[in-house]
Design goal:
Layout (H helix, E strand, L loop, with lengths): L1 H38 L1 H15 L19 H7 L6 H16 L8 H11 L3 H4 L10 H9 L2 E5 L5 E3 L3 E7 L2 E3 L31 E3 L15 E4 L4 E7 H25 L8 H8 L3 E5 L4 E3 L7 E7 L2 E13 L4 E14 L4 E2 L1 H6 L6 E4 L3 E7 L8 H10 L9 H32 L13 H6 L1
Antiparallel strand pairs: 1-7, 2-6, 3-5, 3-7, 4-6, 8-15, 9-14, 10-13, 10-15, 11-12, 11-14
Helix pairs in contact: 1-2, 4-5, 5-7, 7-8
Length: about 450
């Protein structure tokens, strides 16, 4: 029993000494924080924010425990309740905190919602986007898939080298010092044969800064100094996207787009029986383009600017008609040029093959009726095709609505004018009745029903 008492007595003495030392350190730390708070309140606010976020990422209440009469220190707490932070520096810290919290999950554990949040955060960092070529910076699909492969890399010990030649890194916690110039392989960066060393008092990469590359450094060793950095603190955290994952995603998206172009050509009438190598040759100069409703794609009597393959949407086909009428002012018969809708072009239809290939004018005008997605081959790229492909292009295609007789077009015009006259007459009668009886929409028994009420019924 005496031995047990001695053991417990020693433990109590050690606990007492530890508590005394903790209280001493707390008093010293409180004095230091008070000095920082008086000299630079904004710095104190940022430090307090980072400390609380590191201690508990899940606790979003009581982020700031500042005993001060400065109203500016409480602004973020007020705005946080409305999910609105005004200060850009605090916005950056908040987005980095959210990013660290999401990246603590492994890529296979994250949901699509998590990857979308990562994308929404990273698209606001220009330094991250400048690594990609200009044509890929607005590619939402590529960026979203890259975010799905983003992972968190932690370096626990200070002065540990991090090799940036294996991927793209972003500092999420701590800081790092570059060992070479440049430290980031942006699209416009020119690499030198001999890697220059960074000066001792050079740039320090803080939270939100990037380093590394998304392209292989051919002809250099794996342990090259290029894009290498050294951590300045313990427990540094980085977001990493490896070169292998970037190349895999880019190749997959390119293959999907290539297959979509081939399917768009094969869907059109006459092209389904084309040989594979000929379709691939046509696909090399194939481009996607979208058009809003009521957009004139080509006009009658002019050469078509491109060969069009309709993938989504519908288009009106119009022809010009000379319409005689009696001019009351001059007392003479005259002719006016009007347009009549003679048909429609839908999915799996194409147009402009003869006009682009033979440089002849179009026999009709084509106007989009809805939002349309077209695959186009511009007339300036048609010269890249060989003679066999051009002949095959003319054999399998037809001139759109070129075989219609003038009598049929006039009949279509009369039918169109009758519908227009009936519609105008009906609208005129309805407006006269409303004016005569003083009917006001939304009042009395003529009260309109909202769309929400109709849906509920």
């Amino acid at each position: 029993m005496e031995n047990y008492k001695k053991i417990f007595l020693n433990e109590n003495v050690e606990k007492g000494k530890k508590n005394e030392s903790d209280q001493v350190w707390k008093r010293l730390l409180k004095t230091k924080q008070t000095e920082i708070h008086k000299s630079n309140p904004q710095k104190f606010l940022a430090i307090k924010h980072i400390e609380n976020s590191e201690d508990s990422d899940d606790n979003e209440d009581n982020i700031y425990e500042v005993d001060s009469h400065n109203v500016g220190l409480y602004l973020e707490k007020i705005h946080q309740k409305t999910d609105e932070i005004v200060d850009p520096f605090l916005k950056k810290l908040e987005s980095i905190r959210k990013l660290r919290k999401i990246l603590k999950k492994y890529p296979f554990e994250r949901k699509d919602e998590d990857n979308m949040k990562i994308y929404e955060i990273l698209k606001n960092f220009d330094e991250f986007l400048n690594v990609l070529p200009p044509i890929q910076r607005n590619d939402k699909l590529l960026l979203q898939r890259l975010c799905g492969y983003a992972q968190l890399e932690t370096v626990s010990i200070k002065s540990t080298p991090v090799f940036g030649n294996f991927g793209l890194y972003m500092v999420l916690k701590g800081s790092a010092k570059p060992l070479s110039i440049p430290h980031l392989n942006q699209f416009f960066t020119k690499l030198r044969p001999v890697t220059p060393e960074a000066p001792e008092n050079g740039q320090i990469l803080g939270v939100g800064s990037c380093f590394g590359t998304l392209s292989h450094l051919y002809g250099r060793e794996m342990t090259t100094r290029m894009f290498r950095v050294v951590t300045n603190e313990d427990k540094c955290e980085f977001l990493k996207i490896s070169i292998t994952n970037y190349e895999k995603i880019f190749k997959k998206i390119s293959d999907e787009e290539r297959e979509a172009k081939i399917q768009a050509i094969k869907m059109c009438k006459g092209y389904s029986s084309w040989p594979k190598h000929t379709i691939e040759e046509l696909m090399e100069i194939f481009e996607w383009k979208t058009f809003l409703p009521n957009t004139i794609l080509t006009s009658e009597g002019y050469r078509c600017p491109f060969i069009g393959f309709i993938n989504q949407g519908e288009c009106h086909v119009l022809r010009k008609v000379d319409v005689p009428f009696f001019n009351k002012k001059t007392g003479k018969k005259e002719k006016h040029m009007k347009q009549v809708v003679i048909g429609k072009l839908k999915e799996t239809d194409s147009f402009g093959e003869f006009s682009v290939t033979l440089k002849e004018p179009m026999t009709c005008s084509i106007v989009t009726e809805t939002n349309c997605k077209l695959g186009i081959i511009p007339y300036d790229k048609i010269s890249k095709l060989d003679n066999i492909t051009l002949r095959l292009l003319l054999q399998t295609s037809t001139r759109n609505f070129a075989d219609l007789s003038q009598k049929y077009i006039y009949e279509k015009f009369i039918e169109q004018e009758k519908k227009k006259e009936w519609k105008d007459f009906k609208n005129c009668v309805v407006s006269d009745v409303i004016d005569k009886y003083g009917i006001v929409s939304g009042a009395g028994k003529y009260k309109t029903t909202s769309d929400a009420q109709l849906k509920s019924k």
